Amino acid sequence: MKKFLLLLLLVSQTISAQFTDINIVKEIRTKDKGLVVSAHPLASEAGTKILKMGGNAFDAAVATQYALAVVYPQAGNIGGGGFLVGVKNNGEKFTLDYRETAPEKSSPNMYLDKSGKANTDLSQNGRLAVGIPGSVAGFYATLKHCKLPMQQLIQPAIDLAEQGFAITEKEAALLNSLQKEFAKNNFTKTVFNKEQGWKAGDLLIQKELAETLRRIQTDGLKGFYEGKTADFIVAEMKRGNGIITKNDLKNYKVAERKPLTFNYKGNEIVSMPLPSSGGILLAQMLKMSSFENLQNFQHNSPEAVQIMVEAERRAFADRAEFMGDPAFINDKTEMLISDDYLKNRWISFNPNKATPSSEVGKITPPTKESTETTHISIIDKEGNAVAVTTTLNGLYGSKVVVSGAGFFLNNEMDDFSIKPGVPNMFGAVGGEANKIEPGKRMLSSMTPTIVLKNNKPYLVVGTPGGTTIPTSVYQSIVNIIDYKLSPNLAVNSPKFHHQWLPETVDYEKGFPENTVKELEKKGYKSNYRPQIGRTEIIVIDEAGNLTAVADGRGDDSVGVE
């Protein structure tokens, strides 16, 4: 365990590249400077470059997201969507929902065959899996909070795409593992296909993507949702069974939503409301675990983990039954996070044994959600804070690259309940709240979050990881507020996860064996995962000292102004 943590405390490594040296920095402590934490060092560098040019945290958020679309194509994107939570130094709080939406021609039964069986290959791979992309619209919606013009914010990404960058060993292995999938789902050879295979240090140059970014730079929103790029997207749809039209693209709108806020031990938590389930789940889990005075138990002890697992179980049961796009359902957020409701939910907690999942919710098959997402945490020297989580859903999304435009399209339609009304193997029926409907946003677990202390940013946090996102953010907040762990230990300590169904508790390798064994005695089933999440965190203490930590589970990196 100690060796595991020591390895994660390594500060940096350097790899040379054509565009720039890739300097992976895992932790920075500073004061009176801006910080950017993201999944790729070149993206973090793009954000900090903008801060140095006079931009604020929102400028840096836009530049970093564009850069991730180039250097982190497995999840960074312009062909997907995401959520942004912002807190300005004047106290203003806001969120932007640029989640993908279902095309006009979509329907609840679009992935079912004549016998009513769901074809998950259609919802996960190829053109029919694609939701209307929201990312570029989201970047433009962020612009009103920025100081610099979009033409300047997109330039670092154009340079990266045009000049290329050296890929790491991990990136080479990932690309090599999906060569057959890229070939199967594309009619023309893409820049991601390489006959002799990829190796560390190879240059990834993306000329078509550079041209697409230039069209956005020149023509703004119309440079993506209309004109040549829209033509490329629609043509790509017609090569297979895709249904996105020019009207779908032209009519896409970002939703500005009221942040979900609540108090936790004197801190104000600011997170994402529906159609992200993340904020609601976070509120439910933190409040329920506080009923048991969690801080009185040792970190990752059997008592503490049992309390947190049971809070996760009850929250995820509510997710399956109640949560979806608020424009299409009866939004019960206020009830779900109320103290009265949660105290009643907690009555069945028994410290001596596991609570059967059937006792806390109707056994409804939960929607499968991919772990391939990416998160950015940013703060500037003026005290503006941004948490952004974006995704293509699956690894490289639908695996479809828009021919002529050079970017991957999402497979976000798989985040809907693709077989509502169709019984599963247990005879239970899929959730109606998240069924497919035209114009609807699919339910998400993304949980970009900012914690305020005395009305000022204290934590900026988020992670990728599908349904493990809310539980990883939950654990990170508990690790810092309840257990007073350092930011590095809060991020890099082995995590656990439970989501109501299946009944198992997932643990990362290195998790305390005694805790696992003690919980098994109480009836908990165990499963091990290689990793859970890749959390990016910034912590600001009362003296104004900032500590940024990039997760040690990947090539994530911190950039400083």
TrEMBL record:
Gene3D superfamilies: 1.10.246.130, 3.60.20.40
Reactions the enzyme catalyzes: an S-substituted glutathione + H2O = an S-substituted L-cysteinylglycine + L-glutamate; an N-terminal (5-L-glutamyl)-[peptide] + an alpha-amino acid = 5-L-glutamyl amino acid + an N-terminal L-alpha-aminoacyl-[peptide]; glutathione + H2O = L-cysteinylglycine + L-glutamate
PTM (free text): Cleaved by autocatalysis into a large and a small subunit.
Keywords: Acyltransferase, Glutathione biosynthesis, Hydrolase, Signal, Transferase, Zymogen
PANTHER family in the record: GLUTATHIONE HYDROLASE, GLUTATHIONE HYDROLASE PROENZYME
Quaternary state and interactors: This enzyme consists of two polypeptide chains, which are synthesized in precursor form from a single polypeptide.
UniProt-recorded name of the protein: Glutathione hydrolase proenzyme
Organism for this UniProt entry: Chryseobacterium suipulveris
Gene transcribed to yield this protein: ggt
